Amino acid sequence: MVRCIHCGEVHAITRSGIVRGKQRYYCKDCKLYFILKEEATVTPARPHMTTIVDIAKALCISKSTVSRALHEHSDINEQTRNDVLDMARKLDYQPNLLAQSLVKSKSNNIGIIVPEFLTYFFPTIIMAAQEVATKAGYNVIICQSQESYKIEKANAHVLLSNRVDGVLISMSCQTKNFEHFRTFEKHGIPVVFFNRVCEEIDSSKVYVDDYKGSFLAVEHLIKSGYKNIAHIGGPLSLQLTYNRLNGYRAALKKYGLPSGKDQVIHCDLSKKGAINAAETLLSKRRNRPDAVFCVNDPVAIQLIMVARQKKIPVPRELGVVGFSDDPMAEIIDPGLTTIQQPVSVIGREAMELLLRSIQTEGKAQPIVKSLKPKLVIRGSSVR
Amino acid sequence: MVRCIHCGEVHAITRSGIVRGKQRYYCKDCKLYFILKEEATVTPARPHMTTIVDIAKALCISKSTVSRALHEHSDINEQTRNDVLDMARKLDYQPNLLAQSLVKSKSNNIGIIVPEFLTYFFPTIIMAAQEVATKAGYNVIICQSQESYKIEKANAHVLLSNRVDGVLISMSCQTKNFEHFRTFEKHGIPVVFFNRVCEEIDSSKVYVDDYKGSFLAVEHLIKSGYKNIAHIGGPLSLQLTYNRLNGYRAALKKYGLPSGKDQVIHCDLSKKGAINAAETLLSKRRNRPDAVFCVNDPVAIQLIMVARQKKIPVPRELGVVGFSDDPMAEIIDPGLTTIQQPVSVIGREAMELLLRSIQTEGKAQPIVKSLKPKLVIRGSSVR
DNA sequence: GTGAAAGCGCTAACAT
DNA sequence: ATGTTAGCGCTTTCAC
C-alpha cells in the first residue's frame, strides 16, 4: 500500500515507470510524481506541514541539497534547483522559521515595547517601524506595558524567551528601575529607545526636541496676547515631562512673564488624570489662567471638553495648545493648536538604527537623534 | 585555568572543597559554586544565553532532570528541584521558546490579521484579545493587511512560517479569494473571523448584529423627524456593508419612507473616500438628504467636517448617525449619535473561541456569535 | 555538485 | 528519582 507523499491518500496512486532504478509513483489527485525511499516510513496524518525532508524524499536526494537549492547556494546544479523549487511549490512548502532560528541563533523577530497603542501616536510609530522591519525580513512582536513597570518587565522576559534580535522601547511612566533593559544588552541584544527614552542607558535613541517644541508653543501663546499661561505636565518619571516643562519656563522667562509655581499641574496621562487637572485649573477662583499649554493632545482635548462644560469660551477666554498633532486636533472645534511631531519618522528612524545595530558586529556606537518639532496653528489659540 | 560557568571570567575563581568526589569551584564575582564535568568544554563568549545544559553541568546532573525540575514534573526530588531552580535564577536562565516550540510542534503564538490599527476600533479589539491570550500563555503576532489582498496573503504566509497555533482574522476589503485562509485549516490551524467575517469559510465567527444596528440608527433618525435619509455605505466586498445597507432599507420600508437608489453611496473606508462621498451627497442641487446614516464613525465625522465647511448646520439641516462609537464621537461638536459596538467583547470572545478550538482535538464545531449593538444618542441627530 | 553527520535547545519516551 | 537516547526542522561543516 503506497500513500501519496503529499495528500497521504492511497486511492489515486498508480505506478509510473522506473527512475534511477527505483519505482516511481503518480498521484492523480495531486498530479504528483514521486519515489519512495527504501524503508520509506510513509506519511503521517493530515495536518503535517511539508519539510525539506519531504521534498528530499520526493526527489530522492538529500535534505542538504534541498536546503542549498532553497537558498540559492552557489554550488548547486541548475536542474536540481529547479526540481526542488518545483516540488516545494507542489507540496506547498513553508520553511519552519522556528527551526531556522534555532540553528542560526537568530530569530528575525524584533520586539517593540510601548505603554499602549490606543491613541494614534504609538500605532503610527509601530506601523512605520513595522514597515521598515518587514522590508528587511524581520517580524515584529508588539508588547504593551500599560504604563506598568511590572508588565514591562514581564514583556522583556517574553521577548528574551522569544530570542528577539533587537528591541524598540518607549518606557512606561512607572519605570524607575532599568535592570530589565540592561539584561538585553548583557546578552548582546541591541536596544533603541524612542520618545520616552531612558537616560541611564547608553544606547541609541530617537525623540523629538521637546524643549524646543514647548518653547514654540508657549511663545506662540504669548504672541497671541495671553498673559497668564499655565501648564499641564506629564508624570515626573518621564524625561520628556521635564524637557517640556523647561521649554515652557524658558519661554515665559524670555518674555518676562511670571511662572507662578501653582500654574503647573502634573498628571498621569490617563483620561481621568487629564480631566482632574483641567478641573483644578479651570475652577480656580483667583488667578485662573487665560491659556494652558498641555503636555499632549489627548490632555488638551480633555481640557477643552471641561472648558466647554464650564462655558469658558476657547480661545477667547482660554487659549489652548497641545503636543503631537493627534488627528483629533483637527476634528475638535475650535481646532487645536499643537506641536507636530514627525511621528512616522520616529518609528522609521528608530527601526533603522536598531537594524543597523543588529547587523553590526559587537556593540555599535550609540546614535541619538533629536527631531525637529513644528508649530501648527489652529483656532484654539488665536483670538 | 578554570572559567566561571556564569560570567566566563577566570580571575575570581577559587577551589572550594570536593563534592561527590569532584573538585568544586567558587566564583567570587557571581557568588556561585560550581563543578566542572570531566571533559568540561568551558564556556563560550559573553552573549551566550544560559541553557538547560549549563544548569545541568553546573549541578553535575543530566539535562532531562533539569527539564523536569523546571516543569514541576511529578517524579523529581524536592532537593534537586530547588537546586535547579536556584541555579536557574543564578544563571539568569530564560527558556528558549523557539526550541520548545520546535520539539512540541506548538509555538504558543497566535496570529492576528487586521486591515489597520490606527482608528481605535482594531487596537481596542487587539488589546482585549491579547489580554486573553497572554493569560493563557500565548503570544500574539499582529499583522496589518492595509486593506490589501496581496499583503493579507503575505501575512498569512508569515504566520504559517512562524507556525502559529491559531489565527484571528478581520478581512481586508479587497479580499475576494480565500485560499490563504483555507491553507490554515488544511494544516489544522484553527481560524476565527471577527467583524469582517468570511461567509465562505466554515469557522467560528464573532461580530455585531449589523442589520439590527443599522435598523436602530435609521429608525432613530426617522423618529427625530428626518424624511430624506441617505446612506454612505462601505465597500461592496464586505459582508457588513450589505447587512448595514439592509438594515437601513428595512427601517425606511417599515416607516413607509422611499429609498431612492441615488441616496446610497458606497465608499472605501479611507478618509479621502469618505470626503468624496460626503461632497457628492451634500452638493446635490435637488433632493439633498436631510439626514445621513454612515457605515462607521470615521466616515460620519468626515461628513460632519464637510457639512461644517459648507455651512450646513448639524443637526438642524442635516442629521447624522455613525456606527461604532469611536472616542471621536464624543469629541466632535455636536456629539455624534452612533451605534455602539461592544468592541472589547468582540476581541475577548474571538480569542476565547480560538483558544477553545486550539485546545480541542480535531476540528471543533464552529460557533458563530452575534453581539447586540446599542444606540447612543448625542447631538448630531436630534433637533 | 551532492551526501552524511553534527548540532541548535529542548522534550519525551525508554531504561535503570 | 535520574540518566540515556532520539528527534523536532533546519543549516553547515566536512568528505568525496
Automatic annotation (TrEMBL), chains A, B:
Q: Could you tell me which species this protein originates from?
A: Niabella soli DSM 19437
Residues in domain HTH lacI-type? Answer: 50-104
Its protein name is LacI family transcription regulator
Asked if the record carries the keyword Manganese, the reply is no
KW Nuclease (keyword) present: no
Question: Per UniProt, which keywords does this protein have?
Answer: DNA-binding, Transcription, Transcription regulation
Q: Name one GO molecular function term.
A: DNA-binding transcription factor activity
The record's section on InterPro entries has:
HTH_LacI (IPR000843), LacI/GalR-like_sensor (IPR046335), Lambda_DNA-bd_dom_sf (IPR010982), Peripla_BP_I (IPR028082)
